[in-house]
TrEMBL record:
Its EC number is 2.6.1.16. The active site is at 355 (for fru-6p isomerization activity). Residues 38-176, 209-350 form the SIS domain. It catalyses: D-fructose 6-phosphate + L-glutamine = D-glucosamine 6-phosphate + L-glutamate. This is Glutamine--fructose-6-phosphate aminotransferase [isomerizing]. Keywords: Aminotransferase, Cytoplasm, Glutamine amidotransferase, Repeat, Transferase. Homodimer.
Length: 360
């Protein structure tokens, strides 16, 4: 039933090229955006609020980078348990987006209820019959298929794919990108599943690295720009299933405190595709290395060539501009998974966690 995999999580990680193909085929037709579940129009939107919990929250944080850059609309992202009690003002022209795999998360549903009658409500869900889907003006399915492992994997990348399409729709509606630019970003997005299939071939290398990680007591993850939310997600995934203390930081924040933690017992995972932020992230990485920190550099051929000398490295395929977070989710997941396997924890049913958090 697990298709020859040892755990549901491993099966769900491996399924990602296929489910992403399905999700993208649903939203992209003949190279153009198609939102079949009722239109989402960004023309008159003045502000977007995105609300979710956990991994879905990190998908929202990633989407903020895309939407603000591509469409120029301000995006606020909040965890649902904070949003619902803060009672934030919802100004005219606000579009509210709720992201939830289960569609049943109590805090996210309560945050949605708060927005009812105040904003147009779009949800991005895996379970199409869920409470959150039913309470939304438009519910966009991520089509990941049933996710059984408690630690979310394929739902995360499918959320990113749908949010990526939404960001491009926002740019299209607002005329901030040309038709040719949109087409080219969509083409890049449809190439991601094949790149993910290539990244999955790094599994043996990543499992060797994970064996070393499994000895650590604390692990840091750093990234910049859209790789920052991925650093948060990498740390969450690792702590959930391996029970190793892990934190994600924006690379530039290290020197504002967290670097005090670094010594030769602390592995630091660096997500740094060779993009225009690469040089900045690398200089933060060098500060870590100067303090004896053990760097695991996850980058592409160009990046690794420019920055040899890390403790470990993983050579990723080159990520298309914008869509790096989808691709780099794979090493984040595989490092967490193999670290947990090396520690012998219950990967699919980690202690104290439930798949669907229907109580606050
Ligand atoms: C992490 C994880 C959780 C969920 C969170 C929200 O691997 O699975 O952090 O992402 O509980 O759940 P949904 O998406 O169902 O609202």
């Amino acid at each position: 039933e697990k298709g020859g995999h040892r755990h549901w999580m491993a099966k769900e990680i491996a399924e990602q090229p296929a489910v992403l193909d399905t999700a993208l085929a649903h939203y992209i037709h003949d190279g153009a955006i198609r939102l079949p579940e009722g239109d989402v129009d960004f023309s008159d939107v003045t502000r977007i609020v995105m609300v979710a919990c956990g991994t879905a929250f990190y998908a929202c944080l990633t989407a903020k980078y895309w939407i603000e850059r591509l469409a120029g609309v301000p995006v606020e992202v909040d965890v649902a348990s904070e949003f619902r009690y803060r009672e934030p003002p919802i100004t005219d022209g606000t579009l509210a987006i709720f992201v939830s795999q289960s569609g049943e998360t109590a805090d996210t549903l309560a945050a949605l209820r708060y927005c009812e009658g105040r904003a147009r409500i779009v949800s991005v869900v895996n379970v199409e019959t869920s409470s959150i889907a039913r309470a939304s003006d438009v519910a966009l399915p991520i089509l990941a298929g049933r996710e059984i492992g408690v630690a979310s994997t394929k739902a995360f990348t499918c959320q990113l794919a749908v949010l990526g399409v939404l960001a491009l729709k926002a740019a299209q509606d607002r005329g901030t990108l040309s038709a040719a630019e949109i087409r080219s970003h969509l083409e890049d997005l449809t190439r991601v599943p094949a790149l993910i299939a290539q990244a999955l071939n790094l599994e043996d290398d990543l499992s060797d690295i994970a064996r070393d990680l499994s000895e650590a007591r604390d692990i840091l993850f750093i990234g910049r720009g859209p790789m920052y939310p991925l650093a948060l997600e990498g740390a969450l995934k690792l702590k959930e299933i391996s029970y190793i203390h892990a934190e994600g930081y924006a690379s530039g924040e290290l020197k504002h405190g967290p670097i005090a933690l670094v010594d030769d017992s602390v592995p630091v995972i660096v997500f740094a595709p060779s993009d225009d932020l690469f040089g900045k992230t690398v200089s933060n990485m060098q500060e870590v290395m100067a303090r004896g920190g053990r760097v695991v550099l996850v980058s592409d051929a160009q990046g690794l060539k420019a920055q040899p000398g890390s403790w470990h490295s993983a050579q990723m395929p080159h990520a298309p501009d914008l869509w790096g977070p989808l691709l780099y989710a794979i090493p984040a997941q595989l490092l967490a998974y193999h670290t947990a396997v090396a520690k012998g924890t219950d990967v699919d049913q980690p202690r104290n966690l439930a798949k669907s958090v229907t109580v606050e």
